[in-house]
Amino acid sequence: MTNQIILQTAKQKGANILRRDALQAHLNVVTVAARVQIEMFDITWELKDLCNSPSAPTFDIHYVDQIFEKLFPCITITPLDCFWEGSKVLGPDFPVIIPNLGSGVRWTTLNPVKLFENMKTGFLLSAATFFPFNTVEDFMKRAGITTGYQEKPCLNPRDPECPDTAPNKHSQQALDIGAELTGGCYGFATKYMHWPENLVVGGVKKNKTGHLVKAEALQTVVQLMGERDMYEFWKDNYVVHNIDWTVEKALEILRAWQKKFAEEVLVYSRTGNDTKAYHIDAFSTTAMSDILHDFSEVSGTRIALGYVLMLIYACVSLLRWTDMVNSQSGVGIAGVILVAISVAAGLGFCAILGIAFNASTTQIVPFLALGLGVDDVFLLAHTYVSTINSAIPYEDKIGECLKRTGVSVILTSVTNMCAFFAEIGRASCRERV
Fold first, then answer.
1. pTM, to two decimals
2. pLDDT tens-digit profile of 298-312?
3. What is the 3-state secondary structure (H, E, C) of the chain?
4. Average pLDDT of 276-289?
C-alpha cells in the first residue's frame, strides 16, 4: 500500500487554518486531484482503478455486486469527513442507478439505511425470497454504516445540495470548525473509519477542555494499492489481457498517476482563486522511496573528491617546508589510503552478508570513517615529530611514540565503538516497540 498526501498550510506563518474558506479550498483541491486520469498501454487509468477500497459483501446477483462495487469509494482520510462536504470527495463520478428505485445515487444524497429499507420494500420483490437482506443488514451494523453523510453539518449550509437533515441547514449558523474536528473524523463506516485528530490536522492548539481552537495544517491521505496488490487485483481482468500484465507495469502506472496527481495539485494551488492564501503540496510514499533510493546510491565522484581533498590536506598539513627529510606528508597520504581501503573492505563485507545499503551507509559512513580514522594519523605523526630531536635511541622512537599516544588512540576508538553499538541497540529497541 502507498499513500498520496495533500498538505495545506497558510502562507502567513502561524495563522489559524480552522476556517470555512480553508476547508472549502481543501475540498476543491482534493476533488480536482481525485479526478486525475492517465493514458497508459491504451487504457485509461483513474483513482478508482488504483486505490484501496473497503471490502463489500459479494452475492450471486451480478448487478447487485456491480452496485456495491460502484458505491464503495476509495479510502480517503480527510478532515472533510467531519462535514457533509466529505461526501463530494467520494463520488461516484456518475450516479449509480438502482433498479426500481428511481434516480441514481451519489454519496452526497445517499442515506444507506433509508436505501436499504427501500430495497427491502420495493427492490425486485420477485427476488426478495432469495436476496440475503439479513446478511447485508448484519454487515451494515458491524461496519457502523448508518446515515452516511446526511446528518453531518455543512460547511456551507446555503449549498443547494446540503441535505435538510444537516444540523445547520435551517439555522444557517456558522460552524465551530474546531469543535467538529476535535477527536478526529469518521467516514461512512464509523466502526472502521475513524481518522484520528493527528492524521487530519497539524500544529494544533487546544483549550482547557481539550477542544481545538487552532490548527496550522490540514492533511488528506488517499490510500493507493502497492504495485504487487495492483498486479494481483487486475491480473484476471480482461482489460489487461493484451498488455502482458506485470508487477513492473503496475508500478509504472502507479508512479505516472502519482506524478500527474502532484502536478494537478500544484497547478490548482497556483491558479485557483481560493488557494492564494495557502501553501498546498502533494506528497507520496513512492516519492519518499524514490528520494531514499537516490540518496542510497553510491556517488563515486563525491567519495573520490572527498578522499582526494583529504589526501591534499594531509599532505600539505604534515609537510615540513624547511625540513623535507623529516616531513610527514607520506605518513598522511598512507593513512588516508589505509582508511579508504578499510572503508571499501567494510562496505564490501556488508554487501556479501546481504545487508541493504541506505542513505547513511553511502552518504555518511565513508566520510565519517575517514574523519575518525585520519584523526589518529595526525596524532601519531605529531607525536613522532616531537621525538626526532630527542635523545631516545632510533630503534625505540616508534615504541616511545606508541607509548605516548596509545592510550588516547584506544580510548577514542573504544568510545566511538560504544557510541555506535549504543545506537544499534536503541534502533533495535525502537523497531520492537
1. 0.69
2. 677 878 888 888 888
3. CEEEEEEEEECCCCCCCCCHHHHHHHHHHHHHHHCCEEEECCEEEEHHHHECCCCCCCCCCHHHHHHHHHHCCCCEECHHHHCCCHHHHHCCCCCECCCCCCCCECCCCCCHHHHHHHHHHHCCHHHCCCCCHHHHHHHHHHHCECCCCCCCCCCCCCCCCCCCCCCCCCCCCCCCHHHHHCCCEECCECCCCEECHHHHEECCEECCCCCEEECCEEEEEEEECCHHHHHHHHCCCHHHCCCCCCHHHHHHHHHHHHHHHHHHHHHHHHHCHHHCCEEEEEEEHHHHHHHHHHHHCCCHHHHHHHHHHHHHHHHHHCCCCCCHHHCCHHHHHHHHHHHHHHHHHHHHHHHHCCCCCCHHHHHCHHHHHHHHHHHHHHHHHHHHHHHCCCCCCHHHHHHHHHHHHHHHHHHHHHHHHHHHHHHHHHHHHHHHC
4. 80
